[in-house]
Hints:
Elements: E1 2-8, E2 11-18, E3 31-36, H1 38-114, H2 125-186, H3 200-213, E4 215-223, E5 237-246, E6 249-258, H4 268-274, E7 292-302, E8 308-316, E9 336-345, E10 354-362, H5 365-369, H6 376-380, E11 387-397, E12 402-411, E13 427-439, E14 442-452, E15 461-477, E16 480-495, E17 500-518, E18 521-535, E19 540-553, E20 557-570, E21 576-588, E22 592-603, E23 608-619, E24 624-632, H7 644-649, E25 652-660
Antiparallel strand pairs: 1-2, 2-3, 3-4, 4-5, 5-6, 6-7, 7-8, 8-9, 9-10, 10-11, 11-12, 12-13, 13-14, 14-15, 15-16, 16-17, 17-18, 18-19, 19-20, 20-21, 21-22, 22-23, 23-24, 24-25
Helix pairs in contact: 1-2
Amino acid sequence: EGDLxxxxxxxxxxxxxxxxxxxxxxxxxxxxxxxxxxxKLKAQTQTKRQERLDDxxxxxxxVNESKRALSSKLGYGEVLQQRLEGEIAxxxxxxxxxxxxxxxxxxxxxxxxxxxxxxxxxxGDSLFQANQDSISQSYLNAxxxxxxxxxxxxxxxLAYNKCKKAYNAYDLLLTQxxxxxxxxxxxxxxxxxxxxxxxxxxxxxxQKEGLLGKIKTFDVGMTYPQTTALSDNSVPMKGLxxxxxxxxxxxxFAAGALMNNLMVSNDIVQNRLLYAQNLFNQFDFxxxxxxxxxxxxxxxxxxxxxxxxxxxxxxxxxxxxxxDGMGADTNELVPTxxxxxxxxxKPNFLPGTVIDLVYGKTSDSxxxxxxxxxxxxxxxxxxxxxxTSLLKVTQPFKRFRSVLTGSVRWLDPDADVKSLGVLQPNNxxxxxxxxxxxxxxxxxxxxYRLDRNNLDYRMDTTITLSIVGGKIDGAxxxxxxxxxxxxxxxxxxxxxDDFLQERNNYMYxxxxxxxxxxxxxxxxxxxxxxxxLLTDQVSTALFRNIGLQHLTNWTAFTNGFSVNYFESNExxxxxxxxxxxxxxxxxxxxRLTVSVGLKCAFQENGTSDFGGKIEFITxxxxxxxxxxxxxxLVMGDFYRSYEQARFNRFPYVIxxxxxxxxx
Length: 663
């Protein structure tokens, strides 16, 4: 197995593969996948986006500092201008007064000489000239002061205009930088717009990031496309899976070989749930054994999580199931096609409300196989019972801190569902769920579901499943948490003669976990209880488990102690009661991890079984690690059930791993 993270041309890529000779019934254990790491791409884009924002913020800071410095100079310049304007006005007024003062002075001198009787003559030109020179000198001084004030004003005005021009330029630059910052902050998914004035390489980088930011999924190899909006299920497929979001237009394309999804487990509880259709809706798998080539295309307006209107198309080259009653001819391919309309609305006037409406139609693979139709397209556009639909409404109630979800889903009896994951045809479902947060440390949810088959009443018996349940969880304190869940199921089978057979089942569990610390030793303890009463097509069985796990952490050591009690009581087999006690001690430093464990199983009939494990993990170099594991398994729980004879033949696991890490 391998998981390699690569960077090529600035793109975060991931290549993973797995090969094992142990066959998994799912058929997906041997695979390879080459994909674009969209999460890492998003993180890289966010980093670049933040770097650009930081750069813009630094520029904005410098521009604001320069603007403040210029603003202070402009203010001082305005004060100087006002002062010089006052001085110019005063000098100008003085210059206007000097000519009249000269005339008034001459007349005053003449009049004073004429009125003086002791004077025998009027003053001569020399006297007048002396007074004139005195006034002229004062006038020249005033004129010089005026000119100096004008010159100073012009100098200050020139400097002020330059400062004002620089201030306006900084102001324009500040506006542009703010617009760029707002555009980057408002860009979705790391898509950076191009801006006027940026360098060409920045524009190219933005365009590249914009193109890559549109890719939401890119997988080659083992992938899991979601082929329908009827549920959150996905299908295992080996091929190509691409999804692109361009502004408000979404497109996805998937093509490849559909893998088996027949689930086989060595868990008794899971297997019992598997063999009853939709029982508790937990392990509902189709019996798909024949591969087919699948093509799924979906496109439309909107986003996957937001309001949208998508149209989907599916093609499957082979729609046969393992037990679909199509006869012994396993080589003939039975193609099917399907159309699906996927609508979602999130009304602005109802914040938080989500309305989903899905309608689809498929071709009838059985009619195509039996030559009742000339091809899948004829069946698709006919009145065959191959419709699928879903109406789902999610409504939050903020005042009550609750969310309510209700849905109705219809799958026609002849609808092709092999390309839809684990959905079953011939099923009508009503479902209501709610979640509530009553207190700070108390959350609870309620659920009700009704399933019914035989929608066209072709079968002799109609099965109805009614489930009601709830769950709670919370924290009494930061170190004490609790959880509990209960689901009660009523199975009803009614035949054409109205004979009704009813079975009552339940699944419930509860647990509590606590963390505590003594001196420098931290510990945690978990206590859980599970009880199941399950009825499948054969019998009814009771399964019960009580478990205690205690984990203690020292500086270099970790010890895990567990005690589990298992009880199973089936109608067709003997009752089994067992207690398994286990303890595992681990030591870890920078280069070595050593784990040693013991496990003991005690049966009700007096038999016992002992096992244990030892494991070494060493870091030989920075790029090379080696691990060795040897374990003897014990029998006794119903979570790990094997054929007894095969288990007794070799109840051991021995493995070694050499791991290379390439940086």
